[in-house]
Amino acid sequence: MKVLVVDIGGTNIKCLTTGQRTPRKFHSGPKMTPGQMVSGVQTIVRGWKYDMVSIGYPGPVTHGLPTADPINLGARLAGL
Q: Rounded distance, CA 58 to CA 73, Å?
């Protein structure tokens, strides 16, 4: 099974999948919206094959759901 890993950071969003050696990334920051994040991930992983996604989220999570927005990213990411 191939896993796509998405690391949500305050400077960059980084992605890597099983079988790839070099992560791909794009700039994030406090003005990035959830839609921009999703669109950016879809763009940089185009052509990669994966079966599941694992997300590194820089904020509190309760019962598998983000409960607060990260302090270094745009508001509403917790609502993804």
A: 9
Determine contact, residues 53/38, Cβ cutoff 8 Å.
Answer: no
Reference 77, options 62, 63, 57; nearest CA is: 57
pLDDT digits (tens, 9 = 90+) for 37-62: 999 999 999 999 999 999 998 888 89
Yes or no: domain 3-79 corresponds to CATH 3.30.200.20: no
Instruction: Kindly report the pTM of this predicted structure.
Output: 0.81
Tell the residue number behind the tokens 């509190």, with chain if given: 60
Q: Where are the domains of the chain?
A: 3-79
CA atoms of 64 and 25, how far apart (whole Å): 25
Angle at 55 between CA 72 and CA 40, to 5 degrees: 70
